[in-house]
Specification:
The complex is a heterodimer of chains A (244) and B (201). By secondary structure, chain A is α/β, with parallel strands linked by helices. Chain A has helices spanning 52-62, 78-81, 84-88, 103-106, 178-192, 196-206, 225-235, and strands spanning 2-8, 13-18, 32-36, 41-44, 68-72, 95-99, 115-119, 124-128, 131-137, 147-151, 156-160, 213-216, 222-223. Chain A starts with a strand and ends in a 9-residue tail after the last helix. Classes of the chains: A alpha/beta (244), B mainly alpha (201).
């Protein structure tokens, strides 16, 4: 599995783990993200059971296990958090930040030691050794209770399924040709995202944020002007395709 | 999940189902015993011998229900232990793969404490599983022993039914047959349960 540092400063770093060549063929490829401060780490959308070993192997390249103090699940899907039962047996004294709506569901993946911090619908934030990470509401994009993570200092938005693309596991990590990339995103957004109203509300809020990198859970990272290009493209896309 | 764990899951589920069926049959016997008692009272002195037996039949049925419920709870507990064994075993396998794939990672050794904790939990669960299986087998043997009394009771009931007055003979015979067939059915369920755990030590 590929491991790459996507941001670094004196206070913290961002990493992405993904493109696992050994993942079983029929499971969707996922990007896992981690924010590391001096003594703590937040692992975001840590992934499914099938990827646990690869993700753990990559995490310990950068932090000792005991420094994984926080986990985040944008929503309840298995590719997001079905590895929870395994993390529960790996980390001690960790807290999972996840939507309040899904607590009763996510606990089905097995959670005895990890604490559940329920993120209310309006959003929340976490201070990780002085670094503020905001949980931005992204309800119905695609799950009915859904959050993204925004780091105002690094200007990174971890955008969950928004910006996702269906691609082979050896695709590059970053968008280099936005026009060519649109076709890889279109069906995903039209079919998985149910609500134009929710989509437009999210675009309105996210457009006000300073974003240098937008990091989806599937597909490629958008950098610089491609973030704006994505928001414009998304604004013009009709979603909720299956009922038309 | 290994083949062995799958087999243990299935065995525990089958025992729970067999013992549930045995309980239903035993409940029917308590009803039969209560009917027999009422009939024996009505028959008076001509069915005095049968009347004495009805208390034993009722007692046997109650014991069978009680022990079956206990074994059923044990089977459910075994099922939960097997689930924990499967879970911890799977975690250990994932740790092993992570350690192999990231052998040169700077903090690879920090996985070891978690590995140690999970290994201990796995060993404890295995031990608990074997203890529970041993206890379950003992309880099944107890039911089997109790049910041998059922055979004697059904034979005695037939004898006493024959000695009762003509007016009640047919009904008492039917009750005796009921007890005999119910005991046989419960024994079959218990034997099935014993068979499922025979190869697990």
């Amino acid at each position: 599995m590929l491991s790459r540092e996507i941001y670094t400063s004196a206070s913290h770093q961002w990493f992405v783990f993904g493109r696992d060549p050994e993942k079983p063929d029929k499971i969707i490829d996922t990007n896992q993200y981690m924010v590391k401060t001096k003594n703590k780490a937040l692992l975001m959308d840590p992934g499914g059971i099938e990827l646990f070993s690869a993700v753990l192997g990559n995490v310990v390249k950068h932090v000792p296990v005991e420094q994984i103090t926080h986990l985040f699940a944008s929503h309840q899907d298995p590719d997001i958090i079905s590895s929870l039962g395994l993390w529960d047996q790996t980390v001690e004294n960790a807290t999972l930040y996840a939507p309040t709506l899904w607590e009763g569901f996510i606990r089905h993946f097995g959670m005895e030691k990890i604490q559940y911090h329920a993120i209310p619908d309006k959003g929340d934030h976490l201070i990780l050794e002085g670094i503020e990470l905001q949980f931005i509401p992204a309800h119905y994009l695609h799950a009915s209770g859904n959050f993204h993570v925004y780091d105002p200092e690094a200007k990174i938005l971890m955008s969950g399924d928004v910006g996702a693309a269906l691609e082979p596991h050896d695709a590059p990590l970053e968008v280099t040709d936005f026009e060519g990339h649109k076709a890889k995103m279109e069906y995903f957004h039209q079919r998985w995202m149910p609500s134009n109203k929710a989509k437009n509300d999210w675009i309105d809020r996210v457009s006000r944020l300073e974003i240098e990198q937008m990091c989806p859970q599937h597909g490629r990272i958008f950098k610089g002007d491609d973030v704006k290009r994505f928001l414009d493209w998304f604004a013009n896309l009709d979603v909720g395709l299956a009922i038309e | 999940m290994s083949y062995q764990e799958q087999d243990h899951f299935v065995a525990a589920a089958i025992v729970a189902a067999e013992l549930y069926r045995a309980q239903i049959v035993a409940q029917e016997i308590t009803l039969t015993a209560s009917n027999a008692k009422a009939l024996a009272i009505r028959a008076g002195s001509s069915a005095a011998g049968f009347s004495a037996l009805t208390d034993f039949i009722d007692e046997l049925a109650r014991k069978t229900i009680h022990t079956s419920q206990h074994v059923n709870r044990m089977a459910v507990e075994i099922s939960k232990i097997v689930a924990q064994i499967a879970r911890t075993e799977s975690t250990l396998k994932h740790f092993e793969i992570a350690c192999k794939r990231a052998a040169d990672a700077e903090f690879i050794n920090t996985i070891r404490p978690a590995q140690g904790r999970v290994q201990k939990e796995y060993d404890d669960m295995k031990l608990r599983f074997h203890e529970m299986v041993w206890k379950l087998k003992e309880e099944l043997n107890n039911i089997e022993r109790e049910l041998r009394t059922g055979v004697i009771l059904s034979v005695m009931s037939r004898v006493e039914a024959t000695q009762a007055g003509a007016a009640h003979q047919t009904t008492l015979h039917a009750i005796a047959e009921n007890v005999a067939s119910a005991s046989g059915e419960i024994r079959r369920h218990v034997a099935q349960s014993q068979q499922r755990f025979a190869h697990i030590h």
